[in-house]
Amino acid sequence: MAEGLYFEDSYIKEFEAVVEKADNKFIVLDKTAFYPNAGGQPNDTGKMVRESDGKEFKVVFVGKFSGVISHEVDELGLAVGDKVKCSIDWDRRYMLMRMHTAAHIVSGVISKETGADITGNQLGIEKSRIDFALENFDREALKSYEQKANELIKQNMPVNIKILPREEAFKIPALVKLKMGLPESVKQVRIIEIVGFDQQACGGCHVKNTSEIGQIEITKADNKGKNNRRVYYVVKS
User: Containing domain of residue 69, as a range?
Assistant: First the structure.
């Protein structure tokens, strides 16, 4: 299983699966909607309930190793062939979805205003951050960036997932830079499109409409070294 169910639908909260591999507390399922820690988005948490006896196992970490999504549970007991009912900690996931779509809006606004490339990001439940390759940062402009981001949110723009063949994806101007760093083995590219505003290659989880984000507040900007400026933001209902 190369990709999780979240790849095409970020709103799957519950699903049934079969244990394919059990290595102590590390469990591989035949399918999963749990998001693994990757791309600046933290892993999902939640639970697996064994159908045979109702035994509950908490999912405490999810990672992707050599293309395989592995779930760490809180105790031993699951075995190959066990059928499990799985549920994601939805409040946590949904906040991360709001944060992630907000990150695309904030980064899109700042990139368009300054021409800066994004060099990193880290989503969080209470706050998130984005790093930009900028020599100088106009702190006075932050409020105008925040205002523009919130104006975009209020436009209730649909957020679509598109999975495109590699060469078709690279016809999108914003993705040309990605071509050099993407392994030739990747034949399809997942695009998150905020309709009318932005398209980015992204493997993470997003809301379906910008109206779900709430309100963005840029809380701080730090100088993290030469040509590295870090912006922190939160989202509010």
Answer: 5-88
From 128, 122, 100, 118, select the one nearest 174 (Cα to Cα): 118
Whole-structure pTM value: 0.94
Q: Show the CA angle centred on residue 23, arms to residues 17 and 27, nearest 5°.
A: 25
Per-residue pLDDT of the chain (237 residues; tens, 9 = 90+): 557 999 999 999 999 999 999 999 999 999 999 999 999 999 999 999 999 999 999 999 999 999 899 999 999 999 999 999 999 999 999 999 999 999 999 999 999 998 888 888 999 999 999 999 887 777 788 899 999 999 999 999 999 999 999 889 888 887 766 666 677 777 889 999 999 999 999 999 999 999 999 999 999 988 887 888 899 999 998
> Do 119 and 221 reside in the same domain of the chain?
yes
Instruction: Say which CATH number the domain at 101 has.
Output: 3.30.980.10
